[in-house]
Sequence to fold (70 residues):
Amino acid sequence: MRARSAGTVTNPANCGGYVDMPRLQSTIRSLTAKYPDFGGVDGSEYFNSLPGGTGARWQWAQQVAPVVKG
Fold:
């Protein structure tokens, strides 16, 4: 069986469809509960992802990874 994954826009300045971090985390929790094989989240345009922006883009992954892992 293949792992499921999702993608999201990481900064509203990049394009439409941005979801803020609290809502993204809530959605990820719902996905991991519904799909035990959920594999991860792809952050589009990671170079300026929020909350850290270009200076600390790693903060996006730091806040998403623990939610994906449960």
Summary: Residues 21-34 form the longest helix (14 residues).
